[in-house]
Amino acid sequence: MKKKLDRRKAIKNMILGAGAIPLLSNSAYGFRDTYDAKNTIAAKNYGNSDIKKPITAITLGAGSRGNVYGNYGAQFSNELDIVGVAEPIPIRNERYAMKHNIPDENRFVTWEHVFQKPKFADAVIITTPDDLHYAPCMKALEMGYDVLLEKPIAPTEQECRNILALAKKTNRIVAVCHVLRYAPYFIKLKEMIDSGTVGELISIQHLEPIQHIHMSHSYVRGNWHNSKKTTPIILAKSCHDLDILRWMIGKKCKSISAFGSVKWFKESNAPVGSTNRCTDGCAVESICPYSALKIYHRDRDYTYVFDFPEDESTHSDFILEQLKTTNYGRCVYKMENDQPDHYVASMEFENDITVNFSMEAFTSYHGRRTRIMGSHGDIVGDMNQFIHTDFLSNKVTKWDVSVENVDNYSGHGGGDWALVSDWIKAVKAQDSSLLTSTIDASIESHIMGFMAEKSRETKQTVSINL
């Protein structure tokens, strides 16, 4: 019998057998251990102290995103006053109304009810489900409201174009929540590209790691598991990325070629002994990384989707009940999901700039990764830091990102509240130029997403006509 080979020796032999190729270090990924210079990117403080009288707004949809944007008003009442809410889930409606002191006459069950009343605010914040963005946005514009519109703009290209046309016709402000444009990290990257720091821009590689549990939560079990009832994942999740690429490059995308599928989260991969629900005595629940009992009950992760009762002592039983009655307790291999769990797109922009984008479910981490390659330098970043190398001098500069209160208040690298801050100023001054994510600017990346889906489905390179 052969002697069992020591793992350390086996790895060494593999390296020697490959021509003594060294193990990858940080530098192989673009990061280094020492730097010629270090800088910090700090977000500006939230709040516009010069604004004395707030704009008034009605929130349509008091879920997670409705609370993110509404919380800005709770913190900066001199800028934003939430005076109305539409929300069909009673406990959400009640809690939102209490937080913002909304009178009963301005509490509504659905968005349609809001517009049965004469205009009673400056603006509307639309954070309804994806398939309920179009109709309320069109109605709001017809009635003279300015709009803060959660992405995606609408489920179809024609609906996106209709909103753009009506916004122009009514001369109203529509800010799309492409919040990465307001994150200090991406603002600095764009500044460095525009200033010629890397020379002439040649190519970009951009990765969005969804993270495996996040994928199972949102796009297998969650609200966006069915693309036909909501929007394709390239828009539901990655329109942020298409938008930030278009914004940083500053040129139009000419063509796109995309590939992707549901490879893992399907019934053919269901383990032997699995049940329809993780609570049904599944034989493999304890060894499944996607176990709903592990994620929601034991680890208490992603529980923001549950509307917990006030009594904390009942929360454990409440979660178990949710897992027995909602999609969040179902087996990830036995859902009606159709969203690709891996997605790649290659794009050609004007001036022969190329981009490779990859959206991946099966990662252990979050946070976009970006490589920018120019004629005189390159940049490698992960939203926490980026490294710039100058080809001529070989000088390496590290930039660290410092954003206060991201976890408690403003996600997306500080972009959430920075967007709200600029939107308030734009509405106050009736000047859309104070925004970088107007409907005019944001629609291009949506069309890129629609064309990516067309390419993925037809397996052809698709030209983009804007």
UniProtKB/TrEMBL annotation:
| Top-level taxon of the source organism | Bacteria
What organism is this sequence from?
Answer: Flavivirga rizhaonensis
The protein's name is Gfo/Idh/MocA family oxidoreductase
Q: Which residues form the Gfo/Idh/MocA-like oxidoreductase C-terminal domain?
A: 190-463
InterPro entries in the record, alphabetically? Gfo/Idh/MocA-like_OxRdtase_C, Gfo/Idh/MocA-like_OxRdtase_N, Gfo/Idh/MocA_Oxidoreductases, NAD(P)-bd_dom_sf
Q: What molecular function terms (GO) are annotated for this protein?
A: nucleotide binding
* Sequence ranges assigned to domain Gfo/Idh/MocA-like oxidoreductase N-terminal in this UniProt record: 60-177
The record's Gene3D superfamilies line, in alphabetical order, gives:
Dihydrodipicolinate Reductase, domain 2 (3.30.360.10), NAD(P)-binding Rossmann-like Domain (3.40.50.720)
